[in-house]
Amino acid sequence: MKLTNEKVAAMCRDLENGVLDNVGIVGYTAARNYRALHDVAEPFFIQRNKLIMEYGDAQYDGDGNIDDYVVDPKSEKFAAFAAKYQELADIECEVEILTLPEEKAIDAISGAQLLQLSWMFERGLEATE
User: Which pLDDT score is estimated for 124?
Assistant: First the structure.
């Protein structure tokens, strides 16, 4: 499946909603998908973080140590950050996604998780009629 870096990152976030803790086939499929997606997204995450550090402002903890960087949309550097970020985000990559029949998820995950992970499930013929 061909997806943008931004979509792959979003799908990784989708899988971080507790479904990875499922011990059944849904959890297995989620884990396989997470590994595949994260492996493809890792270079994007690295470059995104470099951009945040380059264009963002350091945030300090109580001891004066840098603990984060934040890009302020009101900053004069934001437009340059956004342009470079979007260039990275729009790059397409190939990733193999495992899918399951939607019926396998019933009683295995919540309705909210089912909606969030709809890309991971195949709908049966009766659901499309």
Answer: 67
